[in-house]
């Protein structure tokens, strides 16, 4: 089903007699397989409002992300949260949509500076599992009364409702950017350097690391600076006098290409194996990658957000979630997602982080409120 209006979408959900597989552009096939009829938002497309002076954009959920980025670029603007394109990593096709970006809370390297997709989502319209049309938020930041459904829907993966429209805050494209690169650091050294840079007054907009296997040679530790040309030059100079002494400088389009590579985890494209995504404290990244390397010799790593986001490419196998038992005193808090795996593993393993008891009770209450028939994407989350 491909409804072309919000009314058609609501009617399709009300009339459903079984599970629905909610889909935007079909590019983020993450989670357990879903049985049921596909309900696509591709027919709900188009930008309905764009006010460059107010840094505000409203678009239907099925609008192609590329269309939005092109429209913004013509006005010297962009989506500040730098959404990832999963197609290369997952081997999918299709067209990423803005509704899919918000539904999965897809955010890139710039998250450490400006925040995630949910932080730039001002409002949403969606249809819940009963077929009711709901609206929350609007076109300005301070507009929420009652429960903040905008934050709830961002990252809900279509389990609570099907978005029909989103309102977003956008930002200006900076005059220039530059990247400093160090070669040959191990994970501990890299995280220490990235943490020092992020703790400096120089407004870092990207802090990542590729180990030697991922970079195809020596490891690469990267720090990005963006802004007015004079400001970027000053901050780069200050960093190279201290934290980043001896680091290589890359500017302009070459710098942008490096961060697109890290954003889309390009080193793992077309390589066999499972891909795990870990969100942890940056200081835990060395212990985490060390444990994974012991469990899966030959593992490759890409780090983002100063070490707070760890991508691991490993041989297919059992669940790879750290816990107090395997790490002893080095207990790691955070969560893990099995982003890419074979069908057998997707069916047998927990794709998303298992919920604690209180979280499970809250989640069950939300399902009862928004989708009492359980016809939306709960199978994807294993719930």
Task: Tell me the layout of helices and strands.
Blueprint: H1 6-15, E1 20-23, E2 37-40, E3 47-51, E4 56-60, H2 65-74, E5 77-78, H3 87-90, H4 98-103, H5 111-114, E6 121-128, E7 133-137, H6 149-153, E8 161-169, E9 171-172, E10 176-183, H7 187-198, E11 204-210, H8 212-215, E12 220-227, H9 229-241, E13 248-251, H10 252-263, E14 274-280, H11 285-295, E15 300-304, E16 309-314, H12 324-327, E17 334-340, H13 343-348, H14 357-370, H15 378-381
Task: Please give a quick description of this structure.
With 383 residues, this protein is an alpha+beta fold. Helix content is 31%, strand content 25%.
Number of helices: 15
CATH topology of the largest domain: Vanillyl-alcohol Oxidase, Chain A, domain 3
Domains counted in the coordinates: how many? Answer: 2
Task: Give the overall shape.
Answer: globular
Q: Just name the CATH architecture of the largest domain.
A: 3-Layer(aba) Sandwich
The rounded distance between the terminal residues' Cα atoms is 24 Å
Q: Biggest β-sheet: count, sense, barrel?
A: 8 strands, antiparallel
Strand order of the largest sheet: 13-10-12-11-15-16-14-17
Helix content: 25-40%
- Tell me the strand percentage band: 25-35%
SS content category: alpha+beta
Contiguous runs where pLDDT drops below 50 for at least 5 residues: 140-144
DSSP summary, beta strand count: 17
């Amino acid at each position: 089903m491909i409804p072309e209006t919000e009314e058609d979408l609501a009617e399709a959900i009300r009339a459903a007699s079984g599970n629905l597989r909610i889909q935007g552009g079909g590019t983020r096939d993450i989670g357990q397989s879903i049985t049921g009829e596909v309900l696509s938002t591709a027919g709900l497309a188009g930008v309905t409002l764009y006010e460059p002076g107010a840094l505000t954009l409203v678009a239907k959920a099925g609008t192609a992300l590329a269309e939005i980025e092109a429209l913004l670029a013509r006005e010297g603007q962009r989506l500040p949260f730098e959404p990832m394109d999963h197609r290369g990593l997952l081997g999918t096709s299709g067209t990423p949509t803005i509704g899919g970006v918000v539904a999965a809370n897809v955010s890139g390297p710039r998250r450490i500076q400006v925040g995630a997709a949910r932080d730039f989502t001002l409002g949403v319209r969606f249809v819940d599992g009963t077929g009711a049309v709901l609206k929350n938020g609007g076109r300005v930041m301070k507009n929420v009364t009652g429960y903040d459904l905008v934050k709830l829907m961002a990252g809900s993966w279509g389990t609570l409702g099907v978005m029909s429209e989103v309102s977003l805050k956008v930002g200006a494209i900076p005059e220039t950017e530059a990247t400093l690169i160090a070669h040959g650091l191990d994970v501990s050294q890299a995280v220490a350097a990235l943490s020092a840079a992020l703790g400096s007054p120089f407004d870092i907009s990207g802090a990542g690391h590729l180990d030697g296997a991922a970079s195809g040679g020596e490891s690469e530790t990267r720090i990005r600076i963006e802004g007015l040309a004079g400001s970027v030059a000053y901050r780069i100079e200050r960093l190279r006098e201290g934290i980043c002494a001896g680091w290589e400088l890359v500017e302009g389009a070459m710098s942008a290409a490096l961060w697109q590579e890290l954003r889309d985890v390009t080193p793992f494209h077309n390589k066999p194996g499972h891909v795990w995504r870990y969100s942890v404290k940056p200081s835990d990244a060395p212990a985490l990658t060390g444990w994974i390397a012991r469990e899966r010799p030959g593992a490759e790593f890409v780090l983002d957000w100063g070490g707070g986001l760890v991508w691991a490419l490993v041989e297919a196998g059992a669940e790879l979630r750290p816990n107090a038992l395997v790490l002893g005193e080095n207990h790691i808090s955070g969560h893990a997602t099995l982003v890419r795996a074979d069908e057998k593993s997707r069916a047998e393993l927990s794709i998303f982080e298992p919920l604690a008891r209180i979280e499970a009770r809250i989640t069950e209450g939300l399902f009862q409120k928004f989708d009492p028939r359980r016809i939306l994407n709960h199978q994807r989350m294993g719930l």
